[in-house]
Amino acid sequence: MIDAPAMRTEHFPFGIKGAGLGTVQRQVPSDEPPPLPPNAELVQIGKPAHRQNGRAKVTGAIRYTVDVTPEGMLNGMILRSPFPHARVRAIDVDDAARCPGVRAIVIVAKPDDPHSAVVRYVGAPVAAVAAASMAAAAEALALIRVDYEPMPFVVDMDEARAPDAPPVHDKMSAPAGHASGFPAAAGLPIVGNIRGPAIARRGDLAMGFAEADVTVEGEFRTSVQTHCCMEPHAIVADWRTDGLTVHMSTQFTAGVRQELAKEFGLPLNRIRVVVDGMGGGFGSKSSLGNYGRLAVQLSREAHSPVRVILDRKEEQTDAGNRPAVLQYLRVGAKRDGSLTALEALSYGTAGIALGASAGNFAQSIYACANFESAHNDVFINAGPGCAMRGPGNTPGAFALEQMIDELAERLAVDPLALRDKIDASPVRHEERRLGAARIGWDRRHATGADAGTVKRGVGMAQSMWGANVQTNAACEVRVMRDGGVQILSSVQDIGTGIGTVLAQVVAEVMGLRPEDIDVRIGDTDFPAGPPSYGSRTTASITPPARTAAWRVMQMMFAEAALALNAGAGELIARGGRIYVAGDDKRSIGFCDVAAHLRTDRISATASRADDYGGYRRSMQDAALAQQDLGGAQFAEVTVDTETGLIRVERVVAVQDCGRPMNPMLTESQVQGGVLMGLSYALFEERIIDRGTGRIVNANLEQYKLVGSRETPAIDVILLENYQGRSATDAYGVAEPANIATAPAIANAVYNAIGVRLRSLPMTPAAVLMALGKVPAETQP
Amino acid sequence: MNRFAFVKAQTLAEAAQASATVAGLIASSAGATGGGSVVKAGGIDLLDLMKENLLAPDTILSLRDIPDIDTISARGAGLRIGAMATLAGLADHPLVRDRFKALAQAAAASDTPQIRNVATVGGNLLQRPRCWYFRAKEFDCLRKGGEHCFAHSGESQYHAIFDNDICAIVHPSTIATVLVALEATVELVNAAGVTRRVRLADFFVSPSEDPTRENDIRIGEILVAVEIPATPRSSRCVWLKQGQRASSDWPLADVAVALELDAAGKCTHAVIVLGAVAPVPRRATSAEALLVGSIIDDALTKAAGCAALDGVTPLTGNRYKLPLLEALVQRAIAQALTTPGQSRQAAAQAL
Ligand SMILES: Cc1cc2nc3c(=O)[nH]c(=O)nc-3n(C[C@H](O)[C@H](O)[C@H](O)COP(=O)(O)OP(=O)(O)OC[C@H]3O[C@@H](n4cnc5c(N)ncnc54)[C@H](O)[C@@H]3O)c2cc1C
Ligand code: SF4
Prior knowledge:
The structure holds 2 protein chains of 2 kinds. Helix content of chain A is about 25%, strand content about 30%. Chain A is of the alpha+beta class. In chain A, the strands form 7 sheets. In chain A, strands 5-7-3-15-12-13-14 form a 7-stranded mixed beta sheet, sandwiched between helices. In chain A, strands 9-10-18-17-16-11 form a 6-stranded mixed beta sheet. The N and C termini of chain A lie far apart (about 80 Å). The model of chain A has no long low-confidence stretch (mean pLDDT about 95). Chain B is α+β, with helices and mostly antiparallel strands. In chain B, a hairpin with a 5-residue loop joins strand 6 (about 185-190) and strand 7 (about 195-200). Chain B is globular. Mean pLDDT of chain B is about 95; it is low at about 345-350. The interface of A and B includes residues 702 and 707 of A. The complex binds flavin-adenine dinucleotide and iron/sulfur cluster. Iron/sulfur cluster binds near residues 143 and 169 of chain B.
């Protein structure tokens, strides 16, 4: 039996800075550091420290996975299905194998295996080749002869729902739940191409609608968005007799190691996964993926390192995507605005995969006693979806936040006033107040009241996202005899600058500067760090970093206490020295203390302690904190009513991330979220040719992304929200920053033109159509 | 992409040894793309086609080293633009900005800065269309020598709304819209050193003439220059574009309008050219006819915008282009009216 850890009572800063900051009493494990004061009282944490690898990034010195080229490396390439649905009857790789430079061939679609022989989307892997050069690999791919038997297919979600639609899956291939999508309930029935419904309910919906004075309803559609990471998916796999080393652009080194162990039957201690520079992931680099698996297989077969890099077309077809969702919403309310009933029915498609829901947004954000949602995943012959920045809640918010605005209009109240009534979150209450003041909500005119052809509008929307924590997260802090400090963790920098934040945390504890700390991350040889998804990195890894640093400092203080002739408990670290608190004359340099260490280095490894006061929910390695992350965004747009062009001029994003650890990096992440949301709102759409099932815009020319000239002025306001839950009290922001943008723009567009756009993307074609300016087809 | 020989042609005669035009190669190859030699200017379009495996020439003849075909110079009050001048050079050149501002604007609004620094005027006029079926190897469409047009029953949001019954491409060149409005002429030299001058408007080929090429360049011909005459209307020329984005995006439609007004303000000559809505830059003749002979007021402008849609045959995905184009035409006319036309005297002085 293990004794419960000794606890002590502490008082933490509590509340939102500027809206009443007090303290809260919490029990904390006795080996956790003392409460961290508010940012205003700190030296490093909460300061806009520059990204440590910023210079390396802009000069090109940083090493991305594509830059890793071990001796003898081969290039792997993947042959992909040109058909959306076909059975591979035969595959002949003899000519390819004879091609000069070819060292390994792996067949994915095996004609004699009924499960793998069927390809279900254009771009599905059929075989892979490793050769001495990319040119040789490409040549070999062209020599593989595949005999396909095309099968009926469907790429349109509405058509796929029809009872007589060609089935995408058979019994064997249908995913069971949690497979490739996010998040999907397990064990639901499949009828035709529809899997579901997944039902959530509380209260009595019929009674709720009966009680309602006002009911609004609407149908909303969101489109498939692709992740479009600047850095492509890439892996260099090196299979040796003594173990496997993988360099991979991944959001989760430790998770990939786990997958590799399982798939290839290797012990964890023989696998090393490494990532240095990363150019984005947004959910699409969360796991090993089929290309990663193939690279390892090729390396095992060729006895050489193998690199696989996806090209842009592969990125757009087979690297995951945000599913499209169709939502019907119905909301009932009393005259005073209080919600009596909320009904959400949705159909979404993640291609051949699961997890195309509208999240738990409608279920959770507003108080409503009577609720029911029914979600159905619809299979189509398209590449599997996967998690993408705020999965579920992003399409969910697009629908519900427009519906709430519509309700406000029906009730003849201001959209902010209605939200004040129905939204219990004190965080969003403060965010609405700050955002409204910054955007100038009071100069917002009545809907459609702007004169002229180019009309201006202002709108807002809110976000809600769980504050996730990876409980399986640890790091080590070391001090060397020369005073050098290292922090080590397998946590990876997806591009947000977590390494810099860790250096700030350790520097704060040790009285050093962030640049004094050597940050070693992105390597599974170090203590296991959290994934960089689910907005959980900072929340999960900064507390153990502070704890580990604090524990090492206890050893340093013990050493210094001897030299200073003081009690270790009296000492503080500041400016590279250790002082007796309150006596500036009695101090010793950090390095001088280190020089007296008994061993070459001392170290402490800490893992993420549970949130003080516990979690709302725990699941294996992850947990959900007590409080949600709230956000409110405001958009100002102009709409050209003759050309249909929407311009977003300004976005004010008010976000909560607990304690902001580095406002500069956090703001830059919020800006990224806003731009991605704007791009989702106005431009992005995967277009599949219905006749052939092929994506016609699998490139960045015709798949349109926001560009520099569409970038609005973005004002970021970060709350300082202290909850006293961990050694740093930091939570995430990546996903919340993306959720509210599209509905805020849609509500602003409505305010400008008085017509609601219920589908994404809001292109000129969509605007002109909504305004009734597009002439109807005349011939039948 | 295939391996190929790269030859830096030093003279026009050497470049004219090219055995094929890109259009000819693609249309005749029926899927097998190997062989032949073609010329390369900036290489932006050529490389795109080669990367997509639509084209696999044995030899590429670069025009870069050939002297004197990249200069922009005055020709009287008009201009002579060397075919190898870059789009960035065109956009920035003082003579272009001064005399034909609309052209400089169109060049500046094409592509991305990186591409404009490399892409040439000649290559831009001769580039292949961007129809996504044309650009994907898997679709053996009419324009590649195949059987049918995939856009007709497929994804047609960026396709033509005029003259689209055979092939529904829109002409890809943005500067072409303005150059046609400015009544430009292209100058071509063949292997024998013979020069051919053609009005740009007549140089383009519509699908009904031949759906496998967009222009009348012949094997062994090198486009050496584009000439713009000074006309009384060329100084009152306006070009407007509407893209889905302002950053590096193609027009959904663009319009060039050139007007000549007499002393009383009556319109004596009008040229209206519609871009990105038809397989070749399209003269809106009925709209032009409406304007000529009248003092152009708001009502007439509106009517002309409407008339610009005469003959329109939209596909299922691109009906939105109708109101958009109408608005652009109206705006361009309105702007042309307030753009100061150069006086004849000033034009004469420049001669
Ligand atoms: C992302 C993107 C956006 C773009 N946006 C636009 C846009 O908005 N508007 C627009 O107009 N264009 C746009 N383009 C197209 C681009 O401008 C053209 O591809 C480019 O201008 C071609 O010029 P080049 O000199 O590189 O031609 P090349 O690729 O070198 O040649 C093109 C063709 O012309 C032939 N050729 C070239 N020069 C001569 C000559 N002097 N004599 C005979 N034959 C010749 C070549 O054999 C080849 O067939 C865009 C392209 C991209 C990739
Ligand atoms: S529009 Fe022209 S280029 Fe495009 S598919 Fe049809 S025929 Fe081919």
